[in-house]
Description:
3 domains; 17 strands; 26 helices; Aldehyde Ferredoxin Oxidoreductase Protein, subunit A, domain 3; six-stranded mixed β-sheet; alpha+beta
Amino acid sequence: MSYTGKLLRVNLTDKTSKVEQIDEKLFKLYLGGRGLASKFLMDEIDPKIDPLSPENKLIFATGLLTGTTAPTGGRYMVVTKGPLTGTIASSNSGGFFGAELKFAGYDMLIIEGRADKPVYISIMNGDVEIKDASHLWGKDTYFTTDTILKEVGDERAKVSCIGPAGENLVLISSIINDKGRAAGRTGVGAVMGSKMLKAIVVRGNKRPEVKDKGQFSEVVREKITTLRSNGITGEGLPKLGTKVLDSIINANGLYPTRNFNKGTYEYVEEVNGEALVEKGYLIRNKACFGCPIACGRVVTLPTGEEGEGPEYESGWAFGADCGVSDLVSITEANFLCNKLGLDTISTGSTIACAMELYEKGYLKDEEIGNATKPRFGSSEAIVYYTKAIAYREGLGDKLAEGSYRFAEAHGHPELSMSVKKQEIPAYDPRGAQGHALEYATSNRGACHVRGYMISPEILGVPEKLETQKLEGKAQWVKTFQDLTSVIDSAGLCLFTSFALGGDDYADLINAATGYNLSTEEMMKIGERIWNLERIFNLEAGLDPKEDTLPKRFLEDPLPDGPQKGATVKLSVLIPEYYKVRGWDENGIPTEEKRKELGL
């Protein structure tokens, strides 16, 4: 089978570990990855707990197809209760760590309790140890990774770790693996830091088996051919990475500029994917485990420093959102996030929020002191405040709580461009009604990768939808959200969905496991996962009234570009979405829906 049927449970309080069998029925109900981990989290913690308390659990979960030859089969999820939002956190990362955890013989690693001093977990071919990490506390993720690899004496081992941001319980901190891949959003790094867990190193040599090797190989070849012949996955992403989107999104008028005050950026050609190539910063492409797309970028700065990124979202957050057109500073801020363990989207967006607060006079000079002034266009500010946030220095201590808490503390929460306290990614919701609905209803706060409606509304995949049309959008959002739940739980990359559809994912899952799932049955699994997450959030205290957007998007029309004059029509979209989901008018899954999904 493509799964091992085993989980490793490590308790940091009493310094113990044990291997447990996973009920095979759960794989048919939740697949793996995000779905399976969410089920375990729901069953094992009280959703009302403090996310930074020892009672919270941190789950590293491989997908059903992680570690197989399935195209992009290297993803893993970090699932916990998120400190930024107070909702279920489910943060996805690529690279090679996830596959290595599967090779070590585990579908999941569940971390409990809290260590009394800094530690790291070593999982080397079945030998599990909790080791002292006092010498690594305070160090960046690059140093930590290199040091641990030397200590375990195996350069082929894979490391996932936090930087100073996670140690300092920064609510927008991330977990970094492979020195550049991030489980980035919802503050999962702070949960790891709260447990005094610096890192996990893993090495394994047990490749997962599939049910029918010949059939699976044939299906994999077919899907790889489809991916390579697709204009986005076979050409656009390999050529320019995710930054192929900068000019496309800007031309369509939903490229958020200066804290979402505009929908186009006049300096986009200075910071787009083409500029990264033309200015000589791009060295080469980089692929994650089992990936035929290779959208990753290895970039060098004029100083000679080398690293990954910036991706589209990261480049936008430090670029257009902050009004900065200096690609060197944008890249430097991105590198700092990778080293210090910060979510690039939330970090850049929180700095942009501070810039608007400062320029409107709500953030005073006396609070900033002699530090760099957070003004739109300041390349110095994005680098300065990225460091200040990670180390909680000066104003950075308050910015470390994220833009919503920062803006609220200054009397203007409406200037935080966030949903459920998580910062909105790089698409102005006024420019695409379906994508706006996805932001408002995402189970982990504002998110573009829980139902990427930009695909049909802007890119025309699988068909072109009119951006401002409301009819049918709720059903589209539900379908995309359910499909994404499946992709995450299978351990595949969302980018495959530009070329592959539901039937393709069912083919891969069935060939690997011997299941005989129809596409409809597979999508029902995705719906089950989505509803489970919703129920967790409601039990955690989520008010369905939080399924909304900042009033800027509901009341202030886009002032420029092709979508000029647009606002988001949530009052129409939300009731229709609840209806399509089979929830009551207040956004709560009905007893009938719960029974239908076995919840």
